[in-house]
Every structure is written in C-alpha cells, then in structure tokens.
DNA sequence: TCTATAGTTCGATATGCATCGAAGCATTGA
DNA sequence: TCAATGCTTCGATGCATATCGAACTATAGA
C-alpha cells in the first residue's frame, strides 16, 4: 500500500542526478558523457547514477553504436520535475550546446555510412511529408510510394534486400537529436550524392561539403524546404 | 544555479518523512506525536525530521500550548506530492489498479483542502458541461455563468480574491488520472459539503464519507450524473 | 589489423544521516 | 508546589551511498 514516493524522491534527491534530469528537461536525448559533464562528475559516477535512474524508470536509454542516449521516460516525469522547479521557484536550466561546434559538421556530415546533420533532418522531414517513409518512433518504414520513388531513382531493392542490414532505419542525430535516415537506403542516398558530385567528403573530418549546384539539385530531388 | 530540487527531493526521499507528508495530505494539522506514530519512528527521530521539513519550508508549524501542529506549507507542496503519487503508481504496478486500493478512498477523499476521487471527477465533468468552468489543459478557468452560479450559492469572491492562491485550479487526480477542481473554489466546495453535513471526514484516513441524503443533495446541486 | 573513444565494473574510501537512549526544557493541570 | 505529558538536544552507532582510480569491454574510424 505504501506508495514509495520516497524511493523516487531519493532518486531525485542527489545533486548530480537532479542536474542530469534538469539537463534532460530540454527534451533532447543526451549521452552519458554529456550528462557526466552536466552533473560535474566523472564518467564512472555518472554511469552509476544513470543506471539507477533507468532502473527507477525515470529515464529510458537508446543504445546507438558506442553512444547511449538518455531521455526522460514519460511526460509525467517531466511534469514532476517541472512541479519541483515550481516549488523551488528555480527556473534556470542552463542549455547545453550539444554535439559538434564546427558549423560544417553541424550542416552535413557522414554518420557511419549515411548522411547526418541539419541537411539529413531536412531530408527526413521531406521524405515523411511526401509519404515515402513513416516515422513510428523507434522504427521507420518505407511505404509503397516511397519504394516506387526510389526505384525510379535507380535503387535496386533486390540487391539491398540481400544485405543483412535493414533497408530503412532511423538513427538519432548527434547534433540535431532528431531521427535521420540510416540503413542501406540511407547509405544509397549518400553514395548517390557523391556519385552525382553534388558534394565531396572532407579529407580530415567527417564533414560533407555540398557545392551550390549540388545543394540545389539535392533539394529539388527530395523536395527539401528551408535549405540555407 | 544550485539545483534546489535536489534539496527538496532529498527531504521527500526519506521513508519516514514521506509517510509524514502523505499523512498531512488529508489537510488536517497533526501533532509531532501523531506524525511520529504515522511514520513509525520515535519522538526524537520525528522531531529531527519535522525540524528539517519546517526548515525546508515544506511544512509550517503552529505552537498551541504544549502541542505543535504541523501542516503542509502551501497548496503547491500538496500538488507536488500528488504528482509524486501519480508517478509512483505509474511505475510500481503498471498492470494493476492505480492509486489507493481502499474503495472508500477511491470514491471520495480529501486532497489537501479540496475533494478528490471519483466524485470529484463527476463534479468536474458536471461543472464543465454546465459551462461553469472551462478546462484548458493545464489551466482551468471560471466562466461568468460559473461565477454567477457560485455567487448564488453563497461564495464570497471578494474574499477569495484576497487570498494569494488562484480561485480556480486543476489538480491531477491520483486514482482517476483526470483533473479535478482545486484552488480556493475547490476548497469552498469541500467546506460547503462539510458545513451542510452531507459528508464527514474520516478520522484515521483521508476518506470522505457521504451519507445517502448528502450524496443526493450534492448530485442535485451540481447536476452530477452517474452517481453510484 | 590498430588506436581512440564511450561506457561499465570493481574495490576502497569517506561522508552523510537516520536512528534511538538518555537527559533536558516547557507546558498543563491538580 | 508537584507530577505528567509533549517535544527537543546531545551523543553514539551503524548503515547506505556518492565518489573516484584502475582496469575492463565494445564500438568507430583509419
């Protein structure tokens, strides 16, 4: 019968953990290292705290490559923290600058074998609004119209299907903290960009540099708006 | 800067203290000895806890003779605890029934200083359907017709306006997961129910027990349907 | 392959704090 | 005045846990 509000409160009651949770109030997923910096503790300590928060179901975690992205578990957790902030009348959450500082990297870069950065978000949104893909939260699905579209662009789906990896996959973007397109289709799109010489890969960093003609052509092909 | 939410949460994070605070959710002021019994600790331990809670401004204390009466400091403290109960019931038994198991508590109980439970939900819906209040998600507003109605029932709005707390406020119900009416108007309604002897407050729990005449009169006054 | 980075586990340390016994105030009622 | 009750302070004890160094696994990128 005893609803253990004490247990939940104790989780919130540690300064390092509360700093992490407040940092996550922005809604963006943050990595363990970022949260360690935010809480001003070492990675080991942060790992221990994060394990407790996940175990206490205050956070959910998505593993992606060698990163772990943490987010508040549900909206009511955010509401609880909001209420706490309200009671303490402490309304300053210092916004953390996430991801790379290099503007070129923020704009477009390679993520393993597909496109990441602002342009990849624009691409993703455009594909969704055209009805080519469906965002289902943790999963992304290619629709029939999407399949037709990419087939017309020269994608050989039989060949893609042979590879073990999924054709269509969402990937949490490092700088934007939004889903972008991964999978073998994401790979095809990036290779297609290079093949058409719309962009070149930077030799020293992961940045992808579009030329002006290429950027326009890219935007036209996928009907991407708000290209700066 | 320093997240005071950790300080407040740590206060709530001790089992003995959280038991005391939940006991005070009934809205009644309790003495140190009563709270010690409630928390199942000795008088010395309770004294230490209560000093911390008063110092942290979660409680206020009134000395009366050789007794000390403790109460929740403000309504937002009660709301914080309600939200905590809400979150813990989401987490602990996601499959089972949420909130209190006691059917009397589910039916009607005191939430700090206003009515909670099934009947409060029925009241809220009735007020909305009559156009007396407007539910705006996070806010609840009293309409002009609502103001006229309650004025006719004897509510002194000039007096209510003097208090710092809002007249009309929504409060998320622990067992029902729906908004019910809080604020000074919610307080007036509960006091009105007691004044008209439609219900009595249980001495040991937060339950509010309506007698059959009172329940009918209550339903008639506010035009509440589906009273079981 | 190899190197750098992300994150975890383990062990040791230290600190905080809840708890209660005993003693001390404070107030009431006789 | 005295005894009874309500509450607090002090001191000792013991447990929980936050912290970090060092060593470990896993992944990315070259």
UniProtKB/TrEMBL annotation, chains A, B:
Q: HTH arsR-type domain spans which residues?
A: 1-92
Which PROSITE patterns does this UniProt record tie to the protein? HTH_ARSR_2
Xref: InterPro entries: ArsR-like_HTH (IPR011991), HTH_ArsR_DNA-bd_dom (IPR001845), HTH_Metal-responsive_Reg (IPR052543), WH-like_DNA-bd_sf (IPR036388), WH_DNA-bd_sf (IPR036390)
Q: What is the name of this protein?
A: Winged helix-turn-helix transcriptional regulator
Question: What SUPFAM superfamilies does this protein map onto?
Answer: Winged helix' DNA-binding domain
The GO terms this record gives for MF are: cadmium ion sensor activity; DNA binding; DNA-binding transcription factor activity; lead ion binding
Its GO biological process terms?
A: response to cadmium ion; response to lead ion
Species in which this protein is naturally found: Neptunicella marina
């Amino acid at each position: 019968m005893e609803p253990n509000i004490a247990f939940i409160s104790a989780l919130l009651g540690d300064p390092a953990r509360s700093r992490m949770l407040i940092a996550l109030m922005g809604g963006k997923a943050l990595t363990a290292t970022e949260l360690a910096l935010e809480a001003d503790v070492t990675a080991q300590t942060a790992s221990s705290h994060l394990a407790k928060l996940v175990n206490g179901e205050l956070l959910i975690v998505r593993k992606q490559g060698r990163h772990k992205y943490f987010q508040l578990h549900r909206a009511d957790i955010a509401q609880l923290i909001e209420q706490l902030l309200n009671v303490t009348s402490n309304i300053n959450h210092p916004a953390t600058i996430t991801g790379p500082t290099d503007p070129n990297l923020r704009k477009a870069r390679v993520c393993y074998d597909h496109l990441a950065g602002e342009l990849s978000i624009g691409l993703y949104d455009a594909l969704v609004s055209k009805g080519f893909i469906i965002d289902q939260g943790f999963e992304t699905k290619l629709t029939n119209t999407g399949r037709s579209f990419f087939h017309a662009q020269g994608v050989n789906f039989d060949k893609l299907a042979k590879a073990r990896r999924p054709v269509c996959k969402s990937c949490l973007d490092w700088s934007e903290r939004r889903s972008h397109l991964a999978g073998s289709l994401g790979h095809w799109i990036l290779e297609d960009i290079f093949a058409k010489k719309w962009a070149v890969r930077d030799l020293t960093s992961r940045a992808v540099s579009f030329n002006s003609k290429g950027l326009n052509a890219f935007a036209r092909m996928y009907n991407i708006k708000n290209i700066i």
